[in-house]
């Protein structure tokens, strides 16, 4: 009987130990899991912080690049506007320089003019100055629009100032008379030839 009591007590002690081990083991596992869980969020937070820092650096880099480009474009725009203004202001510099020789010729003619000069010499001087002027203008691309009586009326180069009835059938709807010569500058009409057209 005493032996049975001892055996039961041993079994109870063993049972208690087993229960303690079973209780302690899950507690230990829970502690390990909690530690892992604590480490995992910290790593995630560190990764997110690193990613945010990288994005901030990229945004700053793009901002700096934008500011540099904007500054360069602004400088380019100002420089181009200044060059355009200079070009407009000085576009005729070369032409004016060439025309000064014509002005000089007129001045010389006026200085040498007197009442004793005959009409022929005055006319010759005027013709020379006119040729000089025309040659300079031709050098800069100015060409006259050649229009004669009987030419077909062309609205691209002619400006009809009036229409008159004409007896000749072949002149109806065509140029009857040239009142003012037209001119082109580098193939662009800068003054239309003023003409009288025969009425149809």
UniProtKB/TrEMBL annotation:
Biased composition (Acidic residues): 32-49
UniProt key word Cytoplasm: yes
Top-level taxonomic group: Bacteria
Subunit architecture: Homodimer.
Function: Participates actively in the response to hyperosmotic and heat shock by preventing the aggregation of stress-denatured proteins, in association with DnaK and GrpE. It is the nucleotide exchange factor for DnaK and may function as a thermosensor. Unfolded proteins bind initially to DnaJ; upon interaction with the DnaJ-bound protein, DnaK hydrolyzes its bound ATP, resulting in the formation of a stable complex. GrpE releases ADP from DnaK; ATP binding to DnaK triggers the release of the substrate protein, thus completing the reaction cycle.
Gene that encodes the chain: grpE
Compartments it resides in: Cytoplasm
Upper lineage: Bacteria, Pseudomonadati, Bacteroidota, Cytophagia, Cytophagales
InterPro entries: GrpE, GrpE_CC, GrpE_head
Residue spans of biased composition, Basic and acidic residues class: 8-23
Record carries keyword Cytoplasm: yes
Region (Disordered): 1-49
Record protein name field: Protein GrpE
Protein family membership: Belongs to the GrpE family.
Keyword terms, alphabetized: Chaperone, Cytoplasm, Stress response
Organism: Persicobacter psychrovividus
